Model the fold of this input.
Amino acid sequence: MTEKMWRVYLSGEIHSDWREQISAGVEKAGLPVLLTAPITVHEDSDDCGVAIFGEEASKIWHDRKGASLNSIRTGSLIRDADIVVVRFGEKYKQWNAAFDAGFASALGKPIITLHPTEHDHPLKEVDAAASAVARDPIQVVQALAYIIRGDMPS
Done:
């Protein structure tokens, strides 16, 4: 029998290496996980719409073209995900991450949030919709190992 390949979407903050830490941990644990994510090159994410469909005179339409194009990727990957991990970083407010969490919740997807304790109060509603709240990427890997194989942390 073939082991299920779990699809885990990594949403949120793009200014640190948390995705790479989860990827390395998943690989080290030998977990059957396919990690997916939004486009994490900020400039590409912002400028994709005008690069493909042409320039806009107004910044709002420039941004709208990029956001609309990115929403196709994000929506598809979240719909396909078995689990959605949503990272809220320390430095920037991630409005897109909050939207992704709400979208995943509306679809009935299990959510693991990842954020520092100082974000507990502003994220209380998001955390209430989540199945788990992690403080660092290793906890996400440990949660995945438990969910997939029943492995307890060593």
In short: The radius of gyration is 16 Å. Helices lie at 18-29, 42-53, 59-80, 95-106, 124-129, 137-149. The first strand starts at residue 6 and ends at 12. The chain has six helices and five strands.
